[in-house]
């Protein structure tokens, strides 16, 4: 390079550097240099591809194809060499790859997992990297996680979970140009070591016992053989579906769901007094005291609200399962704190979307949100060492505890698992 040209290039680099302009972006001083390096690397790959075996089969160079790639350093027009047999697979810039830097793709997927729209992501990438990325390219990039989602959905499970919450969230999804409501089924479990884990995410037209049966069957096919306690809502046929797959499971219908459903049918002027009486039922210290309070509730309110009282009586056995346990376990299984805490964090990410364009678009963002949430679950549930011993007294050898714990040794350590399968 001549001294004059070198001096001009150095000045251009300095000016762009001081002004904060991307040196490798469009009109960047170093962009031609990087393009030249990439073009030469592609040529070298082609030369290596056309070995003696390829040439003997008649394969040879077949011109160049211009390709635009995007990166954190800007956009580049590359000249990709072609071969006659079309079996050349470059490594540095793969076929159909439109984003050069993997770290940019990871950045896009990370932003999508935080609930950002394609428009917002595109603006962010433009501002940060001086690179234009279309919505179609963003969709292609986020689609990279689809195989990962499918592997995760089909991964093997542990043979037993102590407590499993089964619940659904509802979203709007576009189907054939129409907006339809979809039920997103979530299964959250606690293993024998006290660690929470999302066992599966499933999508259906609506919430129903029949679909829950298919969900439970899928969990069983993936290795889950036993659930000690299943926490559910009052969906008709739900308990029968669970027991048909896991016959030894104890069902705990969520009290908060029963309360909410009851209050729908209580007049506003009576709600305060009714709730005062109802608290005596579900906050009682023993099942006997709770049943006395339930009888008093019936005597006072049955004439005015017969359907509500009948519902409590019909569901009582599965609403009162938690009275068998100490207060820490009771709170864990009769409230919805655990599963609703997970739902609340997912909704923080999905609340920006009025409706999702496809089922997979919804699954992608919920899956990414779930992976981010699970990274925070680094410790077992509070007082789990005491909880598991109480569960062992109740359920015995259905809990496959380590020998050290049975003999009074240290608590079993968590088996390390990757956040992404």
What this model shows, in words?
- Helix 4 crosses helix 17.
- The protein is an alpha/beta fold and 421 residues long.
- Helix 9 (238-245) links the parallel strand 6 (226-232) and strand 7.
- A 5-stranded mixed sheet has the order 5-4-3-6-7, with helices on both faces. The chain has a two-stranded antiparallel ribbon with strand order 1-2.
- Helix content is 49%, strand content 17%.
- It has 4 domains: 1-98, no CATH class; 101-153; 157-253 and 336-421, Nucleotidyltransferase, domain 5, CATH 3.30.420; 255-328.
Describe, in short, the structure shown.
One of its GO terms (biological process) is DNA transposition. Helices cover 49% and strands 17% of the residues. By secondary structure, it is an alpha/beta fold.
The 3D shape can be described as elongated
In CATH's first tier, which class of the largest domain applies? Alpha Beta
- Low-confidence segments: 405-421
Beta-strand portion reads 15-25%
**End-to-end Cα distance:** 51 Å
Q: From the helix content, strand content and strand pairing, which structural class follows?
A: alpha/beta
Rounded mean pLDDT is: 81
CATH superfamily of the largest domain: Ribonuclease H-like superfamily/Ribonuclease H
| CATH arch. level architecture of the largest domain | 2-Layer Sandwich
Helix run count: 19
GO molecular function: DNA binding; transposase activity
Keywords: DNA recombination, DNA-binding, Transposable element, Transposition
Pfam families: Transposase_mut
Function: Required for the transposition of the insertion element.
């Amino acid at each position: 390079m001549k001294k004059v040209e070198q001096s001009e290039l150095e000045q251009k680099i300095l000016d762009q550097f001081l002004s904060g302009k991307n040196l490798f972006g469009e009109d960047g001083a170093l962009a031609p240099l990087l393009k030249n390096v990439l073009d030469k690397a592609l040529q070298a790959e082609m030369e290596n591809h056309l070995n003696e075996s390829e040439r003997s089969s008649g394969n040879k160079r077949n011109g160049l194809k211009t390709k635009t790639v995007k990166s954190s350093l800007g956009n580049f027009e590359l000249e990709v060499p072609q071969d006659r047999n079309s079996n050349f697979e470059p490594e540095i810039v793969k076929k159909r790859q439109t984003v050069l830097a993997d770290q940019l793709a990871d950045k896009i997927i990370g932003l999508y997992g935080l609930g950002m729209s394609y428009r917002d992501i595109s603006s962010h990438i433009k501002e940060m990297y001086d690179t234009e990325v279309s919505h179609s390219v963003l969709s292609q990039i986020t689609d990279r996680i689809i195989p990962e989602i499918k592997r995760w959905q089909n991964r093997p499970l542990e043979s037993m979970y102590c407590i499993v919450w089964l619940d659904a969230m509802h979203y709007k999804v576009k189907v054939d140009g129409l907006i339809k409501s979809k039920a997103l089924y979530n299964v959250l479990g606690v293993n024998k070591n006290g660690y929470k884990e999302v066992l599966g995410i499933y999508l259906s037209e609506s919430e129903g016992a029949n679909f829950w049966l298919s969900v439970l069957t899928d969990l069983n096919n993936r290795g889950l053989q036993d659930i000690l306690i299943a926490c559910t809502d009052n969906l008709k046929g739900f308990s029968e579906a669970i027991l048909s797959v896991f016959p030894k499971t104890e069902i705990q219908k969520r009290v908060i769901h029963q309360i909410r459903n009851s209050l729908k049918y209580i007049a506003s002027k009576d709600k305060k007094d009714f709730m005062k009486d109802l608290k005596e039922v579900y906050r009682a210290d023993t099942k006997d005291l709770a049943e006395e309070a339930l009888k008093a509730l019936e005597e006072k309110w049955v004439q005015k609200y017969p359907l509500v009282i009948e519902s409590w009586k019909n569901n009582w056995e599965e609403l009162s399962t938690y009275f068998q346990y100490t207060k820490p376990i009771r709170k864990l299984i009769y409230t919805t704190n655990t599963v609703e805490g997970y739902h609340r964090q997912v909704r923080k990410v999905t609340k920006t979307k009025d409706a999702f364009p496809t089922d997979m678009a919804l699954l992608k963002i919920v899956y990414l949100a779930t992976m981010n949430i699970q990274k925070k679950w680094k410790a077992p549930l509070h007082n789990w060492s005491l909880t598991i011993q109480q569960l062992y007294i109740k359920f015995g050898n259905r809990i496959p505890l380590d020998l050290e714990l049975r003999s009074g040794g240290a608590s079993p350590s968590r088996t390390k698992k990757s956040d992404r399968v």
